[in-house]
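Repro:
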Amino acid sequence: MLLGRCTQDYNNGKIISMTPSRIEQIKNANRKMGERALRVLAVAYADIKSMPGQTKPEEIEKNLIFVGLIGMIDPPREGVKEAVATCTRAGIKTVMITGDHLETAKAIAKELGILKNSDLAITGADLDKIPGEKLEKEIMNYSVFARVSPEHKVRIVKAFRANGKVTAMTGDGVNDAPALKMADIGVAMGEGGTDVAKNASDMILADDNFVTIVEAVKTGRHIFDNIKKAIHFLLATNVGEIVVVFFGLLLGFDSPLLAIQLLWVNLVTDSIPAIALGLEPPEERHNG
């Protein structure tokens, strides 16, 4: 975008005309910096002798002089790579949706283990060319979405949900709000997130850390498993009591168990074991 507005190039202290070969050289440098997981900014300026009458961008931001590229590293937080690996082992697909350059996004995703050999990466411009039905069929093949708009984020979430997947979307900006609302679980950032994102989400991260989401999933699965164990146990013991009473009455006997006896049996045999099942530590599959 910036190169399209540059007509000159600041090169070795001299200002020369921009040429197609120089533009290609700059694009190659941009791509190489992106492959090193650098976020790249292009810098240009306009040499204006006096304040123009029109201060609109389309009037000022033209015939610029290109200066150079700046590469910045935004390293992933500690523990994120391990958290992504934990998600993979737990059957959770982690997807990167970013406004960064495609090459930068791919480099970071490979470093974190999000983009594997068989996974695909796509830009928002290419996403627009894919019909909705085709995207829904192929969405599981993609792990990186770069240069996306808010509309793209909503399309991505819809496509995953169309495949019957439970989706959790993270975001911090106003442009993330529609996708946060569309997802099954919207997760906003508590520290750096906007009020709009927080209001549109179902859960707010107090520490803005992806690792916390993984820990929350592990804890949730642990609690759900223990609830199921306790319910199965209580159903099994109570069904046994019901069968004894039912067949006793069916055969013409008085109730084999009185109400006070049933209460006593439930108190002694149900309460303590059910509590023990509810307090069981997580199973190995939830630890890893």
